[in-house]
Amino acid sequence: MQYIKQLDSVRAIAVILVIISHWLPNQNILNRIPNGQIGVDIFFVLSGFLISKILLDSRDKARVQNVSTFTVLKNFYIRRSLRIFPIYYLTIIVVYLVAMYANTPIKDPFVYYATYTANFYFFEQQSWEVLLPHVWSLAVEEQYYLVWPWLVLLLNRKYVFPMILVFIAIGIGSQLLLSGFRMSRILTFTCFDAFGLGSLLAWGITYKKEKVFLYFKRLSVVAILVFFYFIYSATVKQWNVLSVRTTVSIITLWLISYIYIYHQTDKLKGAFILNNRILIFIGKISYGIYLYHNIIPSMITKKYIDVYFNPLLPDFFNVKYKMLLLIAENSILVIVISWLSFVLIEKQFLKLKNRFNYIPKNTPQ
Question: Model pTM?
Answer without folding.
Answer: 0.95
